[in-house]
Fold this protein.
Amino acid sequence: MWPHHHLPTAITVAATAFIVAVTAIRLTLIGRTSAFGRLINTLLALDATAALLREPIIARRLADRIPGGLATVFDAWHWLTVVAWACGMGMVLLRAYGPVRYRIRFAAVLGSTALLGLFFLILSAPARAGAAVSIAEYGGWRYGVYIALYLALPVIVSCQFYLLKKRGLAWRATTPWEKFTVNALIGLGIASLLPVCSLMITAALDAAGMDTAPTRAVYDLAVGGVTSGEPGLFVFAAVVVIFVPSSTRAVLQFLRLDSESRCARRLHAVWDDLTTAAPGVVLRLRRVDSWRAAPRERLHRRRMEIHDAAEIVARYVRPLPTGIDDYIEATVAERDQESVRLVAELVLAAARLTECGGQPGDATARRTDVPDERTLLRLWAPATTIVRAAGHPAAELPRPAPISTA
């Protein structure tokens, strides 16, 4: 009987820690999301809290600090699990009725879960009065009603998930991952019906006078699973696995290791030189707003600022000095020479604008074509190296091996 008989602590603690870790990542890094995403986050938070309260190590420590002891803790984590299933029902309602019409229905579902919590407390009152560990230890008809109320909402939600999938109207999964997610939720929901089916079958056999040792063993196993919460813990851990990819992406974005952030870092040298020469193109945001911006948004803004700054700098280009032009011809592959000249002109113009603080006076009559972003990224560093190397007198120019611009 919970919390005295349970699986090895290392196994349940590992599952609980996994659930809590993924939940913490989503709540911290994916807080700003859609209505459906908020329901997912709420479901994860409730089930993670229930998993913590279910863990015997935590339950025993908490029982000494709350009225009713372990019996109250038992009611709390069962009720939190029911509320989490109510959030699953909210997902069904949101998909079926839309973001406006689902609210009243979802509020009714939440109200019913509040009543269930009250019924749990009423049913388990004798267990608390008798200093029993839980209503499961107290037993009797009260525990039968308790189990029926506890399993009712999971059964309803599982059936609703299946019906939505069967219709294919309200729940449209377009990508392979979305289809996998929907199918996994349905499969795990149907798995939650096993305890109910087992209890119904064994009760029917008992009523028909066919009570045998195997049926009693199945009944004890089902009741023990509902009481201990261990099967539910591992089922929920399997559900949480579905959200590992999105949580991993959130961590990578937070650490700036996602593809958009890496691309933005590659563009930084070009962006820094051009926007220092034309600072007016930079959108100045508060540090907190800049940090909260999505990686895709930051990358788009950086690309636009590079494009706008390059257009401004291009108005002030001048013909390349003879020394630099000869240096390019001697060190750069022929197919890239014209592109390197265009980029080198921008490098020199950006340097002149930077020296005069972005106030160069009148634009030059000659205006160069602005290379595309890929060319700027590929050739900016080689062009900058050439300009710096060619800044020496011609007699001192080194004769390096040809610069690779591939």
Q: What stands out?
A: Confidence is low (pLDDT under 50) at residues 392-406. The longest helix spans residues 70-123. Residues 314 and 346 are 6 Å apart (CA to CA).
